[in-house]
Amino acid sequence: MMPVQNPALARYNFILGSKSPRRNQLLREFGLDFRVLSKSVDESLPGLMLPDTAAVYLSQQKAMAFTEKELGPEGFLITADTVVAVDNTILGKPSGQEDAVAMLKLLSGKAHDVITGVTFRTREKTVSFSSKTRVYFKELTMNEINFYVLNFSLSIKPAVTESRAMGRC
Predict the structure, then answer these.
(1) Is 42 annotated as catalytic?
(2) What torsion do the CA atoms of 133, 115, 160, 162 make, to the nearest 10 degrees?
(3) Residue 149: is it exposed, middle or buried by C-beta count within 10 angstroms (0-12/13-18/19+)?
(4) Which of 81, 87, 99, 113 does the annotation list as catalytic?
(5) Model confidence pLDDT, tens digit, residues 98-149
(6) Which segment, 29-43, 73-87, 154-168, is predicted with the most confidence on average?
(7) What are phi and psi of 14, to 5 degrees?
(8) Which is nearest to 14 in space by CA: 156, 122, 164, 159?
(9) Domains observed in the chain
(10) What backbone phi and psi angles, to 5 degrees, belong to 75?
(11) pTM of the shown model
């Protein structure tokens, strides 16, 4: 793929503030040259938040964890966080197999929202936004749920992606 040919972007040194293989792939497909530098941040929310607000808040927390020195004079930082919500209730990461089964049962046969908050940060400016996708799961059998939980990651976010790829939603 050809690199992005935009003179306004040419001066920046892009930094992906995430270890996410999917985000890395997306930026490569877009044609950006970038380096990966991630930070651990507290991902707890300061109180009740709507899912859209929470996703943006978390992406901003990640962006603000970087110092101006780490950004450098021409740094353009990209951070993101994704939340999954059912009826405006955010689903956290499952604590174990039982929790993962309960979450997949909750998602089974229903629609849920996958919201990604994104923050762009330079030394001069910070801009954040979110994008929401409505996902519809087919009714899952207990065999399907148990197979997934036993054979794949316990994270619901990969469950959404992998289930979609398997034609389950």
Answers:
(1) no
(2) 90
(3) buried
(4) 81
(5) 999 999 999 999 999 999 999 999 999 999 999 999 999 999 999 999 998 9
(6) 73-87
(7) -80, 140
(8) 122
(9) 7-165 (3.90.950.10)
(10) -70, 140
(11) 0.82
